[in-house]
Amino acid sequence: MGETGSAVRSDRCLDWPGCYNVRDLGGLRTADGHLTRWGAVVRSEAPHLLTAEGWTAVQRHNIRTIVDLRNDDEIKPDLAPRPADLHVLRAPLDASQAVEFWNRWATGGQIATPLYYRPFLDCFPQRIASALSAIARARPGGVLVHCAQGRDRTGLVTLVLLALLGVPAEDIAADYVLSTHRLAPLFARLGQQDPGPGTGTLLTSMGTSAREIIIDTVTSLQPETYLRSAGLCEADLAKLRARLLESGDMTQDTA
Q1: Residue 56 CB burial class (10 angstroms; 0-12, 13-18, ≥19)
Q2: Which residues pair with 146 in a beta bridge?
Q3: Quick count: other Cβ atoms within 10 Å of Cβ 214?
Q4: What is residue 4's predicted lDDT score, i.e. its pLDDT?
Q5: How many angstroms separate the CA atoms of 48 and 78, rounded?
Q6: How far apart are CA 118 and CA 116, in angstroms?
Q7: Can you give the pTM of this predicted structure?
Q8: Running DSSP on this structure, what letter comes out for residue 230?
Q9: CA–CA separation, 243 vs 143, rounded Å?
Q10: How confident is the model at residue 220 (pLDDT cuts 50, 70, 90)?
């Protein structure tokens, strides 16, 4: 196995005042020795709590498009004015009308864990493909992808995206785990209980961990075949690679 570990580089975590779980998907090594491009795609929680300084940081990071994975009833007003030149694309990921699915997976603490990731990918491939199509077809510049907390729905989309690019499963899992620590101050600000410790206890009781589940999910997925079957066209697959992959030989360690 090639050298990994770029997913935990501290400079990938961004300081955008008002948001906590923000990180750039750049600087991740792929299996063929390339690196993902800095500034191409950023993942975060919902940006409505950004301060004016936070929105300035978004613009300085060259973000030009926001892909919002939330349902309509989750959208909240911005704390500070959002720059008018930001283009927002809606790609709701949750299929709230899929009662049978959510009766199974939204109980017993499973909804806030990657336990439901593989079943979700199997049941709703078109929703994943729609989100990735929005990234592929975004205007030139950086793309911010977010849900409510930037962990699960955003995690699903970035998992498939990074797997498509050839980022090793271990690094995709390391990126996911970062959210556990980054979200603690957000829950404190909102006056909500942090589900992280409880999630860890639940998974431990089941003889597994978030890291192991993510690795298993990635290794069981054939991302290109999966996305083609879900309707993502060849042009969009090419656009995703062009948007996110550095060109040339990037085999030297830059971490």
Answers
A1: middle
A2: 44, 68
A3: 22
A4: 43
A5: 4
A6: 6
A7: 0.92
A8: T
A9: 10
A10: very high
Say how far apart CA 125 and CA 122 lie, in whole Å. 6
Tell me the residue type at 242: A
The 3-state DSSP class for residue 198 equals helix
* Whole-angstrom distance, CA of residue 44 vs CA of residue 25: 11
Which structure tokens are listed for 130?
Answer: 């729609």
Q: Output the CA torsion sign for 68, 69, 73, 77.
A: negative
Each residue of 136-147: pLDDT tens digit?
999 999 999 999
Question: Residue 47: phi, psi to the nearest 5?
Answer: -85, 10
241 compared with 255, residue with greater pLDDT:
241
Residue 30 in contact with residue 36, Cβ under 8 Å?
yes
Encoded amino acid at 249, one letter: D
DSSP string, 157-192: HHHHHHHHHT--HHHHHHHHHHHHHHTHHHHHHHT-
Question: Hey, CA dihedral for 181, 243, 66, 112, is it positive or negative?
Answer: negative
> 15 Cβ partners below 8 Å, 6+ apart?
22, 57
